[in-house]
Specification:
single chain, alpha+beta, 6-stranded mixed beta sheet, two-stranded antiparallel sheet, 18% strand, globular
Length: 221
């Protein structure tokens, strides 16, 4: 699914899946109305935040480059099925999006700054995907765990919408559960630097973010 060369077969497949992906998104939106978010517990002083904005290989690499972030895990969230897999989520019928779990030190970086990273590292107006990755499994979602986080997200989203004079695509969703992705997806960019997708999509996206937010990037020795 992650390739720059989309054959006629893939285009036809995406077209056929379109209705099911749209319905999955609608069902998921209804599911997330008026539900209580799950609050995660700190781990050794580290808090957790959850984001989705296209390919999790890209998003993982972006957040791992940020000061105060100790670990990022790729996975799936936002859907209505249990134990999603890469194959099942790619059908667009599970409601899940490729997402990341960010473990961060709140003494170094705030949740508010992580939201800035989120909006600043993607095309916030692209609906149902990022870059060449299209479909509900690549849609943008920010997950909140409490009212404070929800208010932070919504204020930043509203401000960005007014600034751009465009509708912002990101869903603001109550966090429920995060499913860890298959092992080969973890640290994918680091372990596969010469992969075609990484070279042509992931690394350029990372560099654009780093150029935009140099003050947030970890010192590399």
């Amino acid at each position: 699914m992650k390739t720059l060369l989309y054959s006629a077969f893939i285009i036809l497949l995406i077209s056929c899946q379109g209705n099911s992906q749209t319905q999955a998104k609608k069902d998921n939106t209804l599911q997330n109305q008026n539900i209580t978010p799950v609050q995660t517990k700190p781990i050794d002083g580290l808090e957790r935040a959850y984001f989705a904005s296209g390919c999790f290989w890209c998003v993982e690499a972006i957040y791992e480059s940020v000061k105060g972030v100790k670990e990022v895990v790729s996975g799936y969230s936002g859907g209505h099925t249990k134990n999603p897999t890469y194959e099942s989520s790619n059908t667009g019928r599970t409601g899940h999006a490729e997402a990341v779990e960010v473990l961060y030190d709140p003494k170094i970086i705030s949740f508010s700054s992580l939201v800035d990273v989120y909006f600043g590292s993607q095309n916030p107006t692209q609906i149902n995907g990022q870059g060449p990755d299209r479909g509900s499994q690549y849609r943008s979602i920010i997950f909140y765990q409490n009212d404070d986080q929800k208010n932070i997200i919504q204020k930043k989203k509203d401000f960005l919408s007014k600034t751009l004079n465009r509708k912002i695509a990101a869903e603001v969703t109550a966090f429920q559960k995060f499913w860890i992705a298959e092992g080969y997806h973890q640290d994918y960019e680091k372990r596969n630097p010469y992969n075609g997708y990484i070279q042509n999509v992931s690394i350029p996206r990372l560099k654009r973010f780093q150029k935009k937010f140099p003050e947030l990037i970890k010192d590399i020795h």
